[in-house]
Input
Amino acid sequence: MFSKFFEELKARGPLDKDKWDEYVSHYNRIEVPAKAVLLKEGEISKRAYIVEQGCMRVWFNNNGKDITYHFVFENEVVTSAESFIKNVPSLFTIETIEPCVVHWIHKHDLDRILGEMHEIPEVRKAYLDAIIERQFHYMKQFLSFIKDTPTQRYLNLIEENPQIIKRVPQHYIASYLGITPVSLSRIRSKVKLYQ
Output
């Protein structure tokens, strides 16, 4: 059974069933346990993943300390885009938090498919929209680190991404917010007092 992501993509593009089935056949569905590393920092990314079920985190090493900067949930795509496109070492690690079901495709297969689909405006727009949305997310996160207090960043997270609060271990959330687990615990206690 294919994920909602595939169904939404199929609805956008005017592809006949045979061509669609050919493209989808290049995706491999696998089940991955929690704490599995799908891409290590420094490796060259050769696969793109679509999450059918589960949660992942994207993190990098900063002087021996891992820094989480993105979470990935159902129907989202994850890869090290710069590494995948430019064939350079990845700047981060992709790791599962929960047991996951993912669909992966090899770079050479995706390159061929995208080359064939390039002339279909609906599909091109879908890919551009996904790229722009991801960049908007990173820009918003970066600006929040500059202008918001840690408490405000936590409140923003509760409002905008409640599934992170419900599904992700606290030490990863603390890393994502740029604070220690102890600071996060204090913020959570303070926020509960005012709710």
